[in-house]
Amino acid sequence: MALCLAPLLLLLCAVCGGTGDKWEPGIQGCTQAPNVSVLGALPGSGWDNLRNVELGLVLWHNYSQCHTTHDGEYLIPDHVYVVPWRESVVELMDKWLSHTDTWAASINAEVSYLPMLNGKFSSDFQNVKKHDLEHETVTTRVQVRHNISSVKAPEIPNLHPAFWQHLVTISDHLENNETRKAEYLAEMLVLRFGTHVLTHVDVGASLVQEDQVKRALMSDKAIEKTSISLAASAVFFKVVNVGASASWQEQSQHFQDYRQSTLSPKTRSYGGSPFYPGITLQSWQDSIGKRLVAIGGSGLPLPTLIKPEALPEPAVHRVAGAMHAAISRYYAVNVHPGCLRRGSPDFNPQANVDDGSCDAGGRTNFSFGGVFQECEAVSGEDIENLCQNYHVANPLTGSTSCPASYTSSTLHRELKTSTQAHPECKRQCRSCNLFSECCDDVCTTRVVKSVVRLVTSWCVPAQTAMPVASGFLFGGLYSSGKPNPQWV
């Protein structure tokens, strides 16, 4: 089998040798501009599009040509395109029903897999969801965003050596028909490098304020949504010491209502000076200078990188297929179907994909008061010890009984037979001679048969309308010959 790999390995080594020079960074050789900084906000990192986390480097950056940005301030890799793009905007985003990430909005919109899951496991999304569910809030966002330039990866990029070597290892196992090992390594690649690669990064700085505001404020008919937006904007400019406009003074009551309804204000800076109480918008803008960071990005699924330029035929297609399958599994295992409609009796706060159960009519959870099992003697000896193994208490009551408002209903009856062997010994004596006896211990085994009756019962609601949270959530019962009445 190793001989069959030889042609493939030779081809792979040829590719490796052909890219060896490209894997020399060469930053130290750029001596013509010793005071030029290296641009740190670059495309090429792996990206987990469920968690919005930047992972290991997928693309390799080579500085052999010592290119700089148009203004000569930053050293950039070869074949990376930097487009100057100076834009300053004040943007208000009111996300009443869904939350988008300030950084990852573009790449989260990528639709190759299950787009409804993109970003749903990020820390920001989970924090917003937690406030929404626990405190009945909505999220408002105001940001000042300075896009200085756009950095794009080359159309045919160089792969990072660590990423490339991982692909070669997967290819080796596929060539040897070691499919399970290849699948495992493909899943480890997703863990290490993510689901996508960042191919486009926006460089600049942004100052963002996110407020968690009580939902009751939005439901107040006296306050329009635009007024809430204006209030959020006014609060932001007050925080960064920018005077409010005169037109806002006419709606100062809305401003006060907004401040009183805000539960968790959060202001963060990306690039420029770190945010601190008392900082002014002007001083933060003046500090951007050489404190540029990536403030947004977009990208492509990792399998799109697996081209003949990276791996030879036919390995390229098999490796790309293994990666695609691993990413699809990663998405699939994180699908939690359920009702997403807040206020519905079937609303499931853990769900992230709507399965239509909100409109399923009578398909709601039954009230269920638990289950227990009793044991009673029928015949035999040592019944109490035998029944100890079969007594099962109801988790809701701690005993073989139902809670208040529930009655027991028999599910199953069964006789259990136990056979145990008990050794018994008796001393038997006989005359040995005229004046003495000879005695021996004679042992036999006595078989004891015991029978007990097991009765399994569940607790049925005693009335149609039950108190809220009075029992377990219960989806019904079924057997091979009897369907679940919940779904009939």
From TrEMBL:
<feature type="domain" description="MACPF">
    <location>
        <begin position="12"/>
        <end position="334"/>
    </location>
</feature>
<dbReference type="GO" id="GO:0002250">
    <property type="term" value="P:adaptive immune response"/>
</dbReference>
<dbReference type="InterPro" id="IPR039707">
    <property type="entry name" value="MPEG1"/>
</dbReference>
<dbReference type="GO" id="GO:0045087">
    <property type="term" value="P:innate immune response"/>
</dbReference>
<keyword id="KW-0732">Signal</keyword>
<dbReference type="InterPro" id="IPR020864">
    <property type="entry name" value="MACPF"/>
</dbReference>
<dbReference type="Pfam" id="PF01823">
    <property type="entry name" value="MACPF"/>
</dbReference>
<feature type="signal peptide">
    <location>
        <begin position="1"/>
        <end position="20"/>
    </location>
</feature>
<protein>
    <submittedName>
        <fullName>Macrophage-expressed protein 1 protein</fullName>
    </submittedName>
</protein>
<dbReference type="GO" id="GO:0030670">
    <property type="term" value="C:phagocytic vesicle membrane"/>
</dbReference>
